[in-house]
Amino acid sequence: MSYIMVDIESDGPIPGDYSMICFGAVLVRPGLQETFYGRLKPISEKWIPEALAVSGFSREETLTFAPPQQVMRSFAQWLKMTSEGKPMFISDNNGFDWQFINWYFHHFHGSNPFGFSSTNLGSLYKGIMNDTFQNFKHLRQTRHTHHPVDDAKGNAEALLTMKQEMGLKIRL
Q1: Ordered domains of the chain (ranges, CATH)
Q2: Are 38 and 76 in contact (CB under 8 A)?
Q3: What is the distance between the alpha carbons of residues 40 and 72, in angstroms, rounded to a whole number?
Q4: Does the annotation mark 144 as catalytic?
Q5: pLDDT in tens, 28-58
Q6: What is the DSSP string of 57-88?
Q7: CA–CA separation, 66 vs 84, rounded Å?
Q8: Which of 5, 48, 82, 139 could form a disulfide with 156 if both were Cys (CB 3.0 to 4.6 A apart)?
Q9: Dihedral of the CA atoms 24, 1, 123, 140 (nearest 10)?
Q10: Given this model, what pLDDT does residue 123 score?
Q11: What phi, psi does 141 have (nearest 5°)?
Q12: Of 106, 107, 144, 146, which residue is the catalytic one?
């Protein structure tokens, strides 16, 4: 099993009514060399300007991005080539990121290579610390820029720190 850290940016709160604009993924292993970046053409006429602004793209720019079918197919191929065994989805906010990736895989690829499960990085850290008020974000080395590859790398760095310095038992 390979852990894949994922981060997405969207133009609204839910998939279907709104669109996933871009996402990044990083294979979690020392060096963090294996990455994926996808930019997707909107699937809906609805969008929230403040939500889209987080991505740094204009609506006009997003309309030039690749069709979701193409991007999700490429991501599935990357997962197949990069992962050892079934990939495990992990993110900083899996309630948000997972819903978009899962929905897009099912609608535009026919199935989700991650299966039906995901892991929340923040909850994992709270468990290690035995304190639900703790936050892992100080463990990031890569600055959080809202470019999804940067953000996924920072979160992957935090997970590696949890393993290497805090004794988290995890196979990476």
Answers
A1: 2-166 (3.30.420.10)
A2: no
A3: 9
A4: no
A5: 999 999 999 999 999 999 999 999 999 999 9
A6: --HHHHTTSBPHHHHHHHHHHHHHHH-SSSEE
A7: 28
A8: 5
A9: -50
A10: 97
A11: -105, -40
A12: 146
Q: Which amino acid would we find at residue 14?
A: I
**Which helix (H) or strand (E) segment is 52 a member of?**
helix 49-55
Would the pTM count as exceeding 0.90? yes
CA 66 to chain centre: 18
Inter-residue contact 117 to 89 (CB < 8 Å): yes
> Distances from the Cα of 126 to the Cαs of 43, 74, 84, 104, 162, in angstroms?
36, 34, 27, 29, 11
The answer to whether the CB of 121 falls within 8 A of the CB of 136 is yes
At 34 the pLDDT is: 98
**Closest by alpha carbon to 99, among 28, 18, 1, 3?**
18
Amino acid symbol at 19: S
